[in-house]
Amino acid sequence: MYLFVVNKSSGNGRGFRVWRKISKILDKRGIDYQLQFTQSSEQARTFLTEQLSTSVAWKAVGVVGGDGTIHGLLPVLRHSGVPLAVFPSGSGNDTVRGFQIPMKTTSALEVMLEGLITVADLISVSETSTLTALGVGFDAEVAHNVNNSRYKKVCNYIGMGRLAYLIGIFHTLLTFRPSPLTVQCDGVTRTFSSAWLTAINNVISYGGGLTICPQARPDDGMLDICIVHGCSKFKLLLILPTILYGGHTRLPFVTMLRGRNISVESELPRLALGDGENLTATPLTANVDPGALMVMCPRIK
Predict the structure, then answer these.
(1) Domain-by-domain residue ranges, the chain?
(2) For residue range 232-268, what is the model confidence (pLDDT) as tens digits?
(3) Residue 31 and residue 150: Cα distance in Å, rounded?
């Protein structure tokens, strides 16, 4: 039997529309499932905890929602032995990109029913788990501003979640200022006199498809780090088009690192977001949590 957690309000109501497509196919095929519509992360976690503690042999947990919906369920799914199946219906959908899950609902359902189980890592920070990325500094402020904006709803409605993030960048540039930063990666310390952001990634993208760490893989036991530093606001804006395809990694004011244990300290307190959700602030320590999650992924043809 399959278990579904559906955030009807994700993507400005897209979650419910996606679920209707899924349920029609499941009912037509006579596939057994159990469903919970959720209005909060706490409600979803409670439901999932109760269901996974029963004697039912769940084949997978299908989450219809965005990265934030998935984030709220990670404490229950971690080391549960039940794989996660993702159905994109949020504004960012970086989990989908990171695991190459199709954007089309019917194709994503086939991945849940016929795909391969992949063992994936998590990012552990402040006793919580993050699946896609941990953003610290400018990028976290951008995501925070987007999440609390009106333009996010408009962009979601027209199916352009990435546009909301780009608008948020210009919004945040009005008030944000860089500051000194110290990053320790597997015992090696690096200091930056004027840092804008630090992205600690488990998958290649964040912010709705911005390829901030193009070499990242969610199953390699490593975290990929991108630090943008020592540049003006104008140069920061010039970076943006290159992040769409990962070309920023060759620029002199971008430092790329890889490691298992990362600590970040800053002269000014910096907000940190995990999977686009408010998580903590600097100073912080992030560690890779290898093989902590199972995810349904497409079969490679």
Answers:
(1) 2-120+293-297, 133-290
(2) 999 998 888 898 889 999 999 999 999 999 999 999 9
(3) 39
Neighbours of 95 (CB within 10 A): 28
* Residues 6 or more apart in contact with residue 301 via CB below 8 angstroms: none
What is the rounded CA–CA span in Å between residue 72 and residue 152?
Answer: 20
- Predicted confidence (pLDDT) per residue in 142-196, tens digit: 888 887 777 776 676 666 666 777 788 888 988 899 999 999 999 999 999 999 9
CATH code for residues 2-120+293-297: 3.40.50.10330
Residue in the structure block whose two tokens are 């925070």: 144
Q: Are strands 84-88 and 60-65 parallel, antiparallel or unpaired?
A: parallel
Q: Specify the fold of 133-290.
A: Tumour Suppressor Smad4 (2.60.200)
Q: Which residues contact 176 (CB under 8 A, 6 or more apart)?
A: 138, 141, 196
Nearest Cα neighbor of 96 from 208, 212, 10 is: 208
Is the torsion defined by CA of 296, 104, 248, 283 positive or negative? Answer: negative
Contact status, residue 5 vs residue 86, Cβ threshold 8 Å: no
Q: How many Å apart are CA 248 and CA 241, to the nearest integer?
A: 9
Listed residue (95, 78, 86) closest to 129, CA to CA: 78
Angle at the Cα of 274 from the Cα atoms of 278 and 94, rounded to 5 degrees: 125
Residue pLDDT, tens place only, 13-31: 677 889 999 999 999 999 9
